[in-house]
Specification:
eleven-stranded parallel β-sheet, single chain, 3% helix, 3 helices, nine-stranded parallel β-sheet
Length: 666
């Protein structure tokens, strides 16, 4: 069900909400947009300028329930999501701070939209924002690559950080970040004062964290990124007509808890869960087991990481200990892609009062491992729809069987995932460089007989030279300063290059330094990359790989302990070294060490790229399900997002900031 702002029960579109005292006439004649105050003191924000002749009408909302297969927002919302809120609408109040958010929500009424600015980062730790009936809380996720305003909590609490104080609330276009993306927290098991279960389950080791919850009908949650919520991203209790769609919900896999969407309560409770992208969860949708709990989960994508059955319905007996056979009411799971191959796709822990149906899904497990009914039997239907018609699941499927594989990009590392080129080539088979001189990074592949490259942001493969040299023996660098990367090869006796990857090998010079003993960067500022080596007592660079050695600083650190970057933004390569407790840099490789941030991570564990486009190299670490950055190598760690899986970094869009690229995206 789609909900309209300030709509009637039948769904007929009305003007944005006016309080009974709002006249809607231009008393001032100034044609200035509302200030956001309630001129009629009736508890509802004015939806029109007092100088306008009539009420402002919300534009008709587009249908998002049949997305094109090529649309990046198809699963999980994000890029170009068509039902985004425009912050220029007259019913919108834009906020950037906690105080502004609290004031705007406190003044809101039906028809009001509180919009969290895209650059806002609002800490709701220990705080709950309760949205009044008919109000929307919105952000700009997916508009021009934006990640959306951030609401976050650094620890758990007894209530969700966003709740509802009335019916027909919408939460859209935001990043809502919880405190913990891990299955068990670092405190487990030695320091768990709150774990009273006296078993091996770390569920309550620390206070549980909860993203959005409601006890009122008509909640809509769409186009958000929800991650790190140890209890649940979205909870619906004793409420019906919840619609959770086009969200990216991930890293909610706390052992014993970890729900993407959970429904619970002894009164009628019903949720529709559709077109979401789930990853790194325990259960993506679950119910507590009371007989009036219903959910329909359809058209979702569940990526390959989970620690328990994907769709789940508990039994009432597990909650009450009353020997009830009930396990929910009406459960429908259909049209989904489930790539988790080591867990059941659906488990029902009892007998549903109406029935459970698993049909028309693309499932990774074999049929024998795809579903299970426990403790009681009956009212459990597989490969057949509720109407009784045949609707078989496809079992034992690979990702490519369920859809088209793409490279996916996250602009500047924080943006929502969006489709790049259709490709099944993994990131481990690729190098990054600008192979056509257009100012955008490309990916480069050695097939074993030839080279080819493509811009992953919609480009197609283009052929380069023939070669049998494996990728691990190659590097990409601009050795002639023409703005296009060349291919560098070191065989342990000589260095070679192929200009722009299109020519046959040409010798640069004799050298016993192999590929893993050199780094490439511009040390003399001439716009061409040089070859850097470390003898064990001194560093040197060879201009353009062919010139004579130029001495740099005296240092014992070897190439395996070093990395290159531009940490001062002067366009000349600097040398990075991590001692195991402290980072250091040598300016242009010629100065003595100067301290950067303190960290135990060493160069081989790190990645280096300019994420924020300020011309300085940032230091990146993926650890414990977190993508972290130290800005210019000088700041303490900042978590950019929760993330798992291998990735590449490159400026694939040419805007100056590095993007994250993943492979095998549906």
């Amino acid at each position: 069900m789609l909900f309209l702002l300030a709509c009637t029960v039948s769904g007929t579109l009305r003007t944005a909400a006016e309080g009974p005292g709002d006249s809607g006439v231009d008393s001032a004649g100034d044609s200035v947009r509302d200030s956001g105050l309630d001129s009629a003191t009736d508890g509802a924000l004015d939806s029109v300028d007092p100088g306008d002749s009539g009420a402002w009408t919300l534009p008709e909302r587009p249908d998002t329930d049949d997305p094109p297969t090529t649309a990046s927002w198809r699963w999980g919302g994000g890029a170009d999501y068509p039902d985004a809120v425009d912050p220029e609408w007259p019913v919108v109040t834009v906020v950037s701070t906690l105080a502004e958010l609290q004031a705007a929500v406190g003044a809101a009424g039906a028809g009001s939209i509180v919009y969290v600015a895209n650059d806002a980062e609002i800490d709701l730790t220990g705080t709950t924002v309760c949205l009044p009936a008919g109000a929307w809380l919105a952000g700009g996720r997916g508009i021009d690559g934006a990640s959306g305003g951030l609401l976050f909590a650094t620890r758990g609490a007894s209530t969700a950080i966003v709740t509802t104080c009335g019916a027909d609330v919408r939460v859209t276009g935001l990043r809502i970040l919880g405190p913990d993306p891990e299955t068990c927290p670092p405190e487990w098991p030695s320091a768990c004062p709150n774990d009273v279960s006296d078993d091996s389950n770390c569920a309550y080791c620390t206070d549980t964290a909860y993203g959005i919850s409601t006890t009122y009908d008509g909640l809509e949650v769409d186009n958000n990124e929800l991650s790190g919520w140890t209890y649940a991203a979205v909870g619906v209790k004793n409420a019906v007509d919840a619609d959770v769609h086009h969200n990216w919900i991930h890293h909610g896999w706390r052992e014993g808890l970890g729900y993407g969407v959970v429904i619970y309560g002894q009164e009628a409770t019903r949720a529709l869960v559709r077109w979401n992208r789930f990853d790194a969860m325990r259960h993506v949708v679950a119910g507590q087991g009371y007989p009036l709990e219903d959910y329909e989960a359809r058209d979702n994508l569940v990526e390959s990481a989970a620690i328990s059955d994907v769709f789940d319905m508990h039994g009432e007996d597990e909650v009450e200990g009353n020997n009830s056979s009930s396990a929910g009411g009406d459960i429908r799971v259909h049209g989904n892609v489930v790539l988790v191959d080591d867990q059941y796709s659906l488990v029902v822990r009892g007998r549903p009062d109406t029935g459970a149906w698993l049909y028309d899904n693309c499932l990774a497990p074999a049929e024998s491992a795809a579903y299970d009914q426990r403790y009681y039997s009956g009212n459990f239907h597989v490969d057949v729809s509720p109407s009784g018609s045949a609707a078989p699941n496809a079992y034992g499927q690979s990702p490519g069987d369920c859809g088209t594989l793409h490279w996916c990009l996250a602009d500047d590392a924080t943006g929502p995932l969006r489709y790049g080129s259709a490709s099944g080539t993994g990131v481990a088979s690729l190098l990054v460089g600008d192979m056509d001189g257009d100012g955008r990074d490309d990916v480069f592949e050695s097939t074993g007989s030839a080279w080819r490259f493509a811009n992953p942001d919609g480009g197609s493969w283009a052929s380069l030279a023939t070669s049998s040299v494996s990728l691990g023996n190659l590097a990409l660098a601009d050795l002639d300063g023409d703005g296009t990367d060349d291919v560098f090869y070191a065989d342990g006796s000589r260095w070679y290059w192929s200009r722009s990857g299109t020519t046959s090998w040409a010798e640069l010079r004799e050298s016993a330094y192999g590929r893993d003993q050199v780094l490439l960067g511009d040390f003399d500022g001439d716009g061409a990359d040089d070859v850097f080596v470390a003898s064990g007592s001194r560093w040197y660079f060879y201009p353009r790989g062919s010139g004579e050695a130029v001495a740099l600083a005296s240092a014992s650190a070897r190439v395996s302990d070093l990395a290159l970057g531009d940490f001062d933004g002067d366009g000349i390569a600097d040398v990075f070294y991590g001692s195991g407790s402290q980072w250091y840099w040598s300016r242009s490789g010629s100065s003595s060490y100067a301290a950067l941030a303190a960290s135990s991570a060493v160069a081989s564990e790190l990645r280096f790229a300019d994420l924020d486009g300020d011309g300085r190299t940032d230091v990146i670490l993926e650890e414990s399900e977190r993508l972290r950055v130290s800005w210019s190598g000088a700041s303490s760690w900042v978590t950019v997002r929760y993330q798992r899986g291998d990735f590449l970094l490159g400026d694939f869009g040419g805007d100056g900031g590095a993007d994250v690229m993943r492979a095998d995206c549906l």
